[in-house]
Amino acid sequence: MSTQKAATPQPLLQAIDLKKHYPVKKGLFAPERLVKALDGVSFTLERGKTLAVVGESGCGKSTLGRLLTMIEIPTGGELYYQGRICLSTTRRRRSCGGKKSRLCSRTRMVR
After folding, report:
1. Fewer CB in 10 Å around end: N or C, the chain?
2. Residue 99: exposure state from Cβ atoms within 10 A (0-12, 13-18, ≥19)
3. Annotated domain spans of the chain
4. What pLDDT, in 10s, does the model give residues 59-104?
C-alpha cells in the first residue's frame, strides 16, 4: 500500500486580504478621508469551479471585479493566478507570465 498523499491541485485564482480604499477630500483644508470600498476579501477558486459574488448595492462587488480583471490596483492584499502573483501592493501589476489576457477573458460580470 502506498503512503504517498495525492498532490493538492493548485488553485486557479486566489485572493488574499484584498483591499481597495479611495481617498475623499471634502474641502481645501479638510483632512483626507478614506472610503473603504473593499476591505479584506479572501477566497480560493479551484479549476473547473465557479465563483458567484452576491450582495447589497454598494458592498464592493464591482470593485472586486475591477481588481480581478486588473483594471485597478489594490490598496492592500495580493492576487494569484495559477500560483503566480498578479497584483500586490508591493509589486503592483505583474504580467502573470502572459496569462493576464486569459484571466480577463474568463471573468464575467453579470448585473
Report:
1. N
2. middle
3. 13-106
4. 999 999 999 988 998 999 999 999 998 877 665 555 555 544 455 5
DSSP label at residue 44: E
| Residue 103 host element (H or E) | helix 100-106
pTM of the complete model: 0.71
- Longest CA span, the chain: 73
| Own/partner pairs, 100-103, CB within 8 angstroms, 24+ separation | 100/70, 103/13, 103/68, 103/69, 103/70
User: Three-state SS for 106?
Assistant: helix
C-alpha 19/C-alpha 108 separation (Å) is 21
User: For 13-106, which CATH class?
Assistant: alpha beta
Closest CA to 68 of 43, 47, 34, 98: 43
**Residues near 10 by Cβ (< 8 Å), separated by ≥ 6?**
82, 83
Residue where the block lists cell 479584506 = 40
